[in-house]
Write a structure and sequence with these properties.
Rossmann fold, globular, 7-stranded mixed sheet, alpha/beta, GMP Synthetase, Chain A, domain 3, binds adenosine-5'-diphosphate
């Protein structure tokens, strides 16, 4: 027997239908690739998305076909996102910061039929076009006046949609694919995660909840996290679903431009990875000017250092919400909203919870297991592999790559090593491949980095394990110094004393000019391990 309620499929275009019907005048503002600021609203974005859907149908694109984007966060990217999945297509966001070979691999593997791209990427697309095996149409996300001379037969987005009438969305099964995003593939080829309409809608609803991003019709949100990185943490969906004002930075990620945008548009919530906020804090320290009405920053993608939370609190009166997730989780897993017990603690005690990755959002089950697969206690101490389960978590990779990824009970192994505590906070100890194994005990590279980044003059820190004849591995700390600062091994070690367990003390500290990053701005530990694979630690 079934319940007797309506069967209303959870399709992503229903989010923007809602936005247009109930929040039609609410603004969608973006900095553009052509320069300048563009103002639109949810009603207009929806209308143009439907024209975009019609244009794709006109090109012969069928439900289930992949349509790629190489684009920044702009209103046209949002329109094409809704347009693609609104006609049953699969919006495949490609990260433009990947290497050429990876972009070619991903586009060919996905069998993309159309590519929407920004002016920024004309040269990139011209260079790679001969290697794309399935792309039939190249659509430049601009107007006629900005169409460049090109060796390719480029279509103009504005012309394309202007030629189409407002047309209905396509009704597909709620479990049909709506989006596709590849993991960054630091090991092996990237793998595709194919989101469904249902998973995206459920995720969008969960993301807006009070203890998640706390978004509503009065929110003005700036997703600095790019749409090609785990769906900009679903903000273009969540903002539509709750009628928030959406502000986007286009191709700009520099602190002065983002600061100006936050102030001029009265942004109260902005989301980005720690590296973006690190440069913002440095910029504010040097130039001042504040952050206008910004109340909260949601920070995730890598661990948030304690010093960052404190700077935002004390210098800018901005609350940091830490979140943890991954491409395979759409991306949300945990968010750091305080539970009543923690909220009642002193500021310093609260900090020791706020540096954890947060508590599970409804829809995400999680547990930690030991090497024998047995569940570990939720005591904040026992750490092991973190497993997750839920309706917006990957069930298998696109085209079955990687084979079976769930265990017999449907759990997905995140590749992270973590603790869970009595209040439900999850704390990432490390990624399982980054943890340093010293004499049979584990040292968390993340905890060491977070401690080291607080040292005077240190701009960024990375820790890797290098071979040690006695202990198997010992930590090597690499630091990049702030402009004009002088950092030494002694100054960093003196700072770390008392802040970390003595046996965690790095065996060596090297000051380097640059640290390698992945396309999503994370430290590229594989490359560092490679660089220092023959490194001999000083013998004390
Ligand atoms: P990739 O796996 O390609 O680096 P993802 O964005 O999917 O890209 O990365 C997910 C991983 O990033 C997580 O498994 C975790 O290791 C790390 N991560 C994300 N958020 C946090 C956080 N708040 N603290 C620590 N690590 C994080």
């Amino acid at each position: 027997m079934l319940g007797t309620m309506q069967d209303w499929p959870l399709l992503v275009w229903k989010l923007i239908d809602h936005a247009a019907a109930f929040h039609g005048e609410r603004e969608v503002v973006s900095l553009t690739c052509e320069g300048g600021k563009h103002r639109s609203n949810w009603r207009t974005v929806r209308a143009r998305a439907r024209q975009c859907a019609a244009a794709l149908r006109h090109m012969g694109i069928q439900p289930g076909d992949r349509v790629a984007t190489l684009a920044w966060n702009t209103y046209r990217h949002v329109e094409s996102w809704y347009g693609i999945s609104g006609m049953g297509g699969v919006a495949h966001t490609i990260n433009p910061r990947l290497f050429d070979d990876q972009i070619v691999y991903i586009a060919n593997h996905a069998e993309d039929r159309v590519l929407f791209f920004d002016l920024t990427f004309v040269a990139l697309v011209e260079r790679l076009a001969p290697r794309f095996t399935t792309i039939e149409h190249f659509v430049l996300l601009t107007d006629r006046a900005h169409m460049p001379e090109s060796s390719l037969n480029l279509l103009c987005y504005e012309d394309l949609i202007a030629a189409q009438p407002d047309a209905d969305w396509t009704e597909v099964d709620e479990k049909a694919p709506a989006g596709l995003c590849y993991t960054s593939g630091t090991t092996g080829n990237p793998k595709g995660v194919q989101y469904s309409h249902r998973s995206n809608v459920l995720h969008a609803m969960a993301a807006s909840m009070t203890d998640t991003f706390g978004m509503g019709a009065r929110t003005t949100v700036l997703p600095i996290a790019p749409m090609y990185h785990a769906n900009a943490w679903s903000i273009p969906y969540t903002a539509a679903g709750c009628g928030a004002k959406l502000v986007m930075g286009g191709p700009n990620f520099d602190a002065p431009t983002l600061q100006e945008l936050i102030i001029s548009e009265n942004v109260d919530l902005a989301l980005a990875v720690p590296t973006v906020w690190l440069s913002m804090l440095q910029h504010l320290e040097a130039k001042g000017g504040g952050l206008g009405k910004l109340e909260r920053t949601a920070i995730g993608g890598s661990a948030v250092p304690r010093s960052m939370i404190e700077s935002f609190d004390k210098l800018h009166n901005v609350k940091v919400i830490q979140l943890w997730g991954m491409t395979e989780m759409s991306p949300l897993g945990t968010v750091g909203a305080a539970c009543p017990d923690v909220a009642a603690m002193t500021y310093d005690e609260q900090l020791s919870y706020r540096i954890k990755q947060g508590r599970g959002v409804f829809g995400v089950e999680m547990k930690t297991v030991g090497d024998d697969g047995a569940e570990l206690p939720r005591d904040g101490k026992a750490f092991g592999r973190l497993l997750v389960r839920g309706p917006w978590i990957v069930g298998s990779y696109f085209k079955g790559d990687g084979g079976q990824v769930l265990d017999a009970d449907g759990w997905f192994d995140t590749g992270d090593v973590a603790t869970l505590d009595r209040y439900g906070y999850m704390h990432i100890v490390d990624r399982s491949k980054d943890v340093i194994k010293s004499g049979g005990e584990w040292i968390s590279s993340i905890d060491l980095e977070n401690a080291a980044v607080g040292a005077p003059g240190v701009a960024e820190a990375a820790v890797i394990g290098v071979h040690h004849p006695k202990w198997d591995e010992r930590p090597l700390l690499l630091v990049r110094q702030k402009d004009g600062a002088t950092v030494t091994k002694e100054s960093v070690l003196a700072y770390l004393e008392g802040k970390i367990a003595k046996w965690w003390t790095p065996d060596e500290v090297l000051v380097v000019d640059d640290l390698p990053h992945t396309a999503t701005g994370k430290l590229l530990k594989t490359e560092l391990r490679d660089r220092y694979k023959d490194y001999k630690l000083p013998t004390a």
